[in-house]
Specification:
By secondary structure, this protein is mainly alpha-helical. The chain is built from seven helices and two strands. Helices cover 73% and strands 2% of the residues. A two-stranded antiparallel ribbon has the order 1-2.
Length: 170
């Protein structure tokens, strides 16, 4: 099954997912550096990255959801559910972080660094798990890719493959 949402033949969802991953990582690093040195720059950088990560995750979720809808029932769909659940959990962690700590923009006098680091760490853990399940969909179930005929001939045939072929739009 290949991606339904493309630009010039390239699937959009995989192009967008690196942005929230990088922003989420920068959030965690920013809060850790702020906890170590207390420089408000790092607090503001963490909050800015956090908000950027939330915005980009929502943007990336739109083509991801459109692709998910087209996955036929079976193991690939189940893996897709796990991928989506982990991404939603990560998004919730980072939204909570953004709401709580975005209100304290300056960071001056902020001493509560444990909670934003904990929320960011939990969000990153969910993001890593989501990446694992996303790659499993691509690697094991070939979701989001278009196999060449010689590759397809090597694939085991089952009812899922038949359903995928039935749904293909050329």
């Amino acid at each position: 099954m290949f991606s339904k949402v493309k630009i010039l033949g390239h699937p959009i969802h995989p192009m967008l997912v690196p942005f929230p991953i990088v922003f989420y990582s920068a959030t965690l690093v920013g809060f850790i550096v702020f906890a170590v040195n207390g420089d408000p720059f790092w607090y503001r950088a963490a909050v800015t990255a956090n908000i950027g990560g939330v915005v980009m995750a929502v943007i990336a979720s739109v083509p991801g959801m459109l692709d998910f809808i087209n996955i036929p029932r079976g193991k690939a769909k189940y893996t897709g559910w796990k991928h989506m659940a982990c991404n939603v959990a990560a998004l919730i962690m980072f939204i909570i972080n953004a709401v709580i700590y975005g209100m304290k923009w300056g960071g001056e006098g902020e001493t509560s660094t444990g909670v934003p680091i904990l929320l960011s760490s939990m969000g990153m853990l969910f993001t890593i798990l989501a990446g694992f399940f996303g790659w499993e969909m691509v690697q094991k179930h070939h979701v989001g890719i278009d196999l060449k005929p010689e590759q397809k001939a090597l694939e085991p045939q089952n009812e899922l493959d038949a359903e995928i072929e039935r749904r293909k739009v050329y």
